[in-house]
Amino acid sequence: MTENFDVLLIGGGIMSATLGTLLSELQPEWRIGVYERLHDVALESSNAWNNAGTGHAALCELNYMPESADGTVDPAKAISINEQFQQSRQLWSTLVDRGVLDSPRTFINSAPHMTFVRGEKDVEYLRKRYEALKDEPLFAGIEFSEDSRVINQWAPLLMQKRRRGEPFAATRVPAGTDVDFGALTHQLFDDLRAKGAHVVTNREVRGLKRQADGTWRVRWRNSLGKTPGTATARFVFVGAGGWALKLLQRSGIPEISGYGVFPIGGQFLKTTNPAIVAQHKAKVYSQASVGAPPMSVPHLDTRVVDGEASLLFGPFATFSPKFLKNGSILDIVTQVRPGNLWPMLKVAFDNPSLITYLVGELMKNHRKKVDSLRVFMPTAKDEDWELIQAGQRAQVMKKDPEKGGVLQFGTEVVTGADGTIAGLLGASPGASTAVSIMLNVLATCFPDRIDEWRPRLHELIPSYGTTLNPDPEAAEEALAETAETLALTA
Fold first, then answer.
1. Using CA atoms, how far apart are residues 77 and 238, in angstroms rounded to an integer?
2. Which DSSP symbol is given to 236?
3. Exposed (0-12), middle (13-18) or buried (19+): which is 455, by Cβ within 10 Å?
4. Whether residue 294 has a cis bond before it, omega within 30° of 0
5. What does the pLDDT read at residue 293?
6. CA 355 to CA 369: how far, in whole Å?
7. pLDDT score for 285
8. Which N-terminal residues, if any, form the signal peptide (predicted)?
9. Looking at domain 2-485, what is its CATH homologous superfamily?
10. Half-sphere exposure of residue 106, counting CA atoms within 13 Å on the CB side?
11. Contacts of 159 by beta carbon, 8 Å cutoff, 6+ apart
């Protein structure tokens, strides 16, 4: 028996949950299906322990504002990321008001976002970054200090037994957040089920084929028992993390030609020691090591998962040929096609520092990893911290007309020419900006309906179709309204 859907979402993560939620609001009569290959949703990148839970708003992440060759810093990308996160906050606020989402404390909590740097060069850079952001409405309240007494009030663990005479500085934005994307994803899918969506786990998609009538024929099999089956859908979204590349390749759409992915895993040090956790109420980011990818920027984070507070430090890069934590060791080989071989080889040739960085990370034992933590927290003791395995991140490799191939950090949506299929590649800041990304999918894939949907989208996301930062009053109002609904305290 073939199942028939208007929309089929492949993958049970935050991206599919967000797109499904939007479509269920815009077209409640559409039949929505969700296929997840594991036994539950939110077990890969959306799982709380597979990511750092930072509500990425560019408040503390330095890689969104790199210093240019002439020494200037441009806030444009940081502002853009912040705008996108505000759309996520607005949708979540609307859904909390309507009872779709549970108490905000089950998935989002206040956690000031800080940046901490050492050395005269980085201190000067951080000062310039602060000067570029302090008058931007979406960064209202940002503070800068080189005073150890002030920084000690913000984050005591950074200052205890800090070496005298060492240049350091920090910025702080009290309005930062910690997000449990696993809990959020579960709640969104629970609501989709309640509205009649067909959410199925233990179901692995094996093939995608465009049919003569324009619909997609989807081959699947149950992960348990390997029973096969088929489905048809008018629109398919592939939100399957690292496996999105493989499924888009199987679809045969020419737009995926030239793309590959490079998998990078991660580990975190974690502590639940109450005496330590009580002293740190922030997410503190710093500069990445030479050769490290932006996703490996070191940070010491407050986490709240299932109501329990803990601290994470990392990430420490690992390597596995798998595209997912629960993937196949053949993933990195089976992705190779004639169209992406040269771009991937060029990426390998052009990024020797990344390989060197990965090798160095893999050679670190537990003590060496705690040594890295001691750069942040001089009083850290080996025995207080355990190592946990985080998720896999599939970084995009793609053709480049000048370089032949580039390694891209971030997310990218690949869409078929007729708009009947789309898939998401890449990683951070993906989850935090899921709403913005899915709004772009709607506009690209449903151009004949987007005008009709605009009023409803504006109800769900009041800033939809506009930007907040150019209007200080609108930015202040939006930040205040979502903070109140989401029970966030600066």
1. 26
2. E
3. exposed
4. no
5. 61
6. 18
7. 96
8. none
9. FAD/NAD(P)-binding domain (3.50.50.60)
10. 13
11. 148, 151, 152
What is the C-alpha separation between 284 and 170, in angstroms, rounded?
A: 9
CA distance 467 to 83: 7
Mean pLDDT by 10 residues, the chain (490 residues): 94 97 98 97 94 93 92 96 97 97 96 96 96 97 96 96 90 97 98 98 96 96 89 96 92 94 91 97 86 72 94 91 88 89 85 79 88 94 95 88 86 94 87 96 97 97 97 96 91
Letter for the amino acid at 385? W
d(CA 227, CA 139): 52
Q: Residue 296: what pLDDT?
A: 67
Burial of 77 (0-12, 13-18, 19+ CB in 10 A): middle
Q: Tokens 């490079």, residue? A: 262
Token pair, residue 199, equals 């959410």
Residues in contact with 408: Cβ distance below 8 Å, sequence separation at least 6, in sequence order: 395, 396, 397, 398, 426
Which of the 8 DSSP states describes residue 54? B
pLDDT of residue 363: 82
pLDDT on residue 345: 86
DSSP 198-209: EEESSEEEEEEE
Instruction: Report CA dihedral (407, 17, 64, 111) to the nearest 10 degrees.
Output: -140
- Chain position carrying tokens 């050769």: 291
**Among the listed residues 301, 265, 296, 309, the one whose alpha carbon sits nearest the alpha carbon of residue 283:** 301
